[in-house]
Amino acid sequence: MGVPHPPPPHRVAPHAALDPWVEGVTPSLENELFETTYKVLPRHNVLKVYVFDASGYESAGIRFSARVPHEPDDLSEAELDHEAAELIRTTFDRFPQIQELDIWGTIPVANAQATEIENTVFSVSADRTTYERIRDDASLNDPDFLASFGPVWVAPEVPR
């Protein structure tokens, strides 16, 4: 009988395997971010949360559904803008360790309905420095708030 070996150091925490929204490398922070942002969206449609820790510089990604759950209706551009803005505000206000944030809006479809066209319909990247500069500017509507971070992509076309 051999000596038992400890589990490899790269094992994912047991609870992370049970949480389908966790896919990054920081499961406890991902769970907390998911629980916080899931409550922010009026239609509860956060799909995945990713958090990456690079020795004190965390970045995150949030993927949300651009389709109303249990309905065939897709979100309008105004709704996409609003939900992305709320996710950015909530993440940077509640998680001071997160410095960069990517938001994706996608329309999940069954494999039988998949096409050659990418189903990502919305994307914006935000950084804490810009957020802190514009956070209190009440004159910014959602599209202007998002545009402050750079291009906002709406697929399958080009940035607006």
Question: Quick recap of the structure?
Answer:
The chain has 160 residues and is of the alpha+beta class. It is built from 5 helices and 4 strands, in the order H-H-E-E-H-E-E-H-H.
Tell how many strands the DSSP assignment holds: 4
End-to-end CA span: 65 Å
| CATH level-4 homologous superfamily | Cation efflux protein, cytoplasmic domain
Structural class comes to alpha+beta
What value does the Rg take, in angstroms? 18 Å
Structure report:
By secondary structure, the chain is an alpha+beta fold. Helix content is 31%, strand content 21%. The protein has a single domain (16-147), classed as Cation efflux protein, cytoplasmic domain (Alpha-Beta Plaits), CATH 3.30.70. It has helices at residues 14-18, 27-40, 77-94, 128-134, 142-147, and strands at residues 46-53, 58-65, 98-106, 120-127. Helix 2 packs across helix 3.
Summary keywords:
alpha+beta, globular, 160 residues, disordered N terminus, Alpha-Beta Plaits, 5 helices
Topology at a glance:
Blueprint: H1 14-18, H2 27-40, E1 46-53, E2 58-65, H3 77-94, E3 98-106, E4 120-127, H4 128-134, H5 142-147
Parallel strand pairs: 2-3
Antiparallel strand pairs: 1-2, 3-4
Helix pairs in contact: 2-3
